Amino acid sequence: MPTLHALANPARFLRIARPLTPILFWAGVALIAVGCWAGLTQTPPDYLQGETVRILYIHVPTAWLGMGGWTGIALSSIALLVWRHPLAAIAARAIAVPGALFAALCLVSGAIWGRPTWGTYWQWDGRLTSMLLLFFVYCAYIALARADAERGGDGRLPALFGIAGTVLLPIIRYSVIWWNTLHQGPSIGLTKSTIAGSILWPLPIMLVGFTCLFGAIVLMRMRTLLASAKSEARMRRMARA
Amino acid sequence: MKAKHQRLTLILLALGAVAVSAVLALSGLRDQAAFFYAPSDVAAQGLPLGRAVRLGGMVEAGSVKRAADGVTVHFVVTDGKATTPVTYAGIVPDLFREKSGVVAEGQFQRDGSFVAGNLLAKHDEKYMPPELAGKMHETKTLEQ
Known about the structure:
Chain A: Required for the export of heme to the periplasm for the biogenesis of c-type cytochromes. Chain A: It is found in: Cell inner membrane; Membrane. Chain A is built from nine helices and no strands. Chain A is mainly α. Chain A has one domain (22-39, 52-184, 200-240). Chain B has two domains: 1-31; 34-122, CATH 2.40.50.140. Chain B is built from three helices and six strands; from the N terminus they run αααββββββ. Classes of the chains: A mainly alpha (241), B alpha+beta (144). The interface between A and B is large, with 49 and 49 residues.
């Protein structure tokens, strides 16, 4: 992986991350604005759910990023454990907070949809419970990674936790297929979707928009973590001198 | 190079173990994680009497009957293999209708019927505009 190795140098990473952050941020904001407009005004209501169906334009991207965020933590953990990539620990820590936030938004938007559709905000169903577990695992990861960094650890312990946590991703995905649950089965597969095209089309816009915004948040957090590591190192040098 | 390959092998083994444990959790927890009993589960395993359970399935077409008191509903839940008659007194959810999914919370009776204390509508994975669905169901909107 030549490109990843090129980014191992923090100065080179910052030269790319600095201009990329606003590009991703504003692209994300613009796409989400277009997606919200389309999803609120240009699509028909669902034949059963009525207007409630529009929550899917928020719920699906937050679920995608809640799970995608943990995939990012797992990939960073592998890069740290195998290649000792110097930015991997910072990338994983940067992903964890927005990942937890999007998992929480997924749970909240699902509850708001569940009340009019199912008749309940919350049930201990397989999909809902496994997603709540992912949120708790994010919280545990954030605490562990912070403690590890504060004690001057090399990030290997949180990386192992990051890899173990991936066990939840297939459980969340297949919970609605293997178990009987209140949550419906998957509507969107790799090749086909059971959502009518006239309702579906703003969803890819929202997915790309939310992903750009997520990327911008991760880059901002990585830059912050790098800057604080740098200032701490400088303080330590000054204290010694 | 050698150490790096060793670490890569270890990680791949760990990922394999994680995948296997996910499959084991999914299959091993199947009975405990089940959100509801289907009518055919009850037919195969016997009635779970004396405790609160959930019964899930489709509302059989033409089976919904409202009693004269205005709040009691009788209907039949089916999973294609077996059926269970259900009695419920209360407000049904908006999405409760025939040929649609339902989850009832309550207790089985000795005669194999089910008395529900709460009803949840189960939505399926299909989303479509009212025109596509035909005029089968009238969509409830805020204006109506």
